[in-house]
Amino acid sequence: MTLCAAIQMASGPQVSANLLEAEKQIAEAVKAGAKLVALPENFAIMGMNEYDKVKVAESDGQGPIQEFLAATAKKYAVWIIGGTMPVQASVPNKVRAACLIYNDQGERVARYDKVHLFDVSVPDTAEEYRESDSVEAGDGSCVIDTPFGRLGVAVCYDLRFPEFFRPMTRKGLDILVIPSAFTAKTGAAHWEVLLRARAIENLCYVLAPNQGGFHMNGRQTYGHSMVVDPWGVVLDCYKTGPGFVCGEIDISRLEKMRVSFPVLEHRRYFCE
């Protein structure tokens, strides 16, 4: 079994301050025994406006945020799922919302760019979001080998598209990590039920680090970072403010469950 941790933050507009908070939480999670830690979406910056992140966007492979992730993974000998950070896009005035994965030697082993962008008006509120104004969408999924099992990544709004995850199961998905920044309103309505549904329908573990609290730009995020097992049981949940939750990933239990309850083998219709 492996202990994993989902880090919860209430990130602000200052990258340096956010990185200090991220390292503090990572260090505490490692002290608790975590071998795999995941940061939330926008861990490095939650700007005062949507274009602040464009100003601090890094080129792929270099920059202080990427250096921080690599150095921290190596320093604490821990695998880090780097939430999302702004990486330069192929068009001006936009970024890619990139989730970078580092092994316990500080080596980058994967990159996933958020595919589904949050362009919505939240019902019964004045909240409107147009993520595509400043973010360029990715165009593929990510499932990789790790010492803990086959690990896949999705980000926040991706969670609402179940067809996105079915092909991951065909690639051997064991652990699904979903860095997020769910709003307080949408989170209260849908966060837990969506996470548990993805765990149940794909018979996989779900590690869900979320932003949680009040932000300097006026936003409020839902928090409730959690770890969910393949049966849909919430192993741990952290409600609000900075902190982390831990849960055990037991691949042998998962394999036995998939043998005794072979729902993935009973599919009749397949997503490409």
UniProtKB/TrEMBL annotation:
Residues 1-251 form the CN hydrolase domain. SUPFAM superfamilies: Carbon-nitrogen hydrolase. Gene3D superfamilies: Carbon-nitrogen hydrolase. It comes from the Bacteria. Keywords: Hydrolase. Coiled coil: none annotated. Pfam families: CN_hydrolase (PF00795). The keyword Hydrolase applies. One of its GO terms (molecular function) is hydrolase activity. The keyword Hydrolase applies. InterPro entries: C-N_Hydrolase, C-N_Hydrolase_sf, Nit1/2_C-N_Hydrolase, UPF0012_CS. Belongs to the carbon-nitrogen hydrolase superfamily. NIT1/NIT2 family. This is Carbon-nitrogen hydrolase family protein. It comes from Methylomonas aurea.
